[in-house]
Amino acid sequence: MMRLSDSPDLVIMGDSLLFQQHQQVNVDDILTEDFQYNLSTLRKKQIEANGIGIAAPQIGWGVRVLCIGISEETKSRYPSVPDIPFSFWINPQIIEVSNETCWTWEGCLSVPGIRGWVNRPANLKVRGFDDQGNIIEATLDGFAARVMLHEIDHLDGVLFPERIDETKLMVPNVSMETQSCWPENWPTKNARMTLPGTISAER
Questions:
Q1: Residue 149 burial (C-beta neighbours within 10 Å; 0-12, 13-18, 19+)
Q2: Which of these, 32, 136, 153, 199, could form a disulfide with 158 (CB 3.0-4.6 Å)?
């Protein structure tokens, strides 16, 4: 099994690892020393990078593992983001998604400098394994569902810019600092009014 370095670099868009469908983890490996070390390294990198979520391929570990959760520092940067407890998901599988969708501004540690206005299902049911190899299941809605779907995309080799249907719905991160000064209804009425970390029912 691959053992990560103590402080791996973030893998950035353009690296082939981010465009691959990754393999399931052998559940018998979860409690091994190397796997547990890699899990702790993944979480440490997420906290260092102020990420709401992170997937294993983003630090060069090509397996179906992700971590989501809000740290205190992330909460201070995005006060509108709801609390999401830290949790590992190994071999996550989407059981069902809603027909109802919602929009939000997405960013990504592997796609630095830009945000996109992205539509995804509003809620979902997901099943997988936790860091101790136990089967877990959750029903997520709103922003937590969004984070989970974004991270599972990483395990399937999909980055959020591929979910954007119009170029004007992608903006530099720095533009978000002056969102209240954007032209009326630009790039859409709801995109202008929706703060990072919150969702909109409409485009």
A1: buried
A2: 153
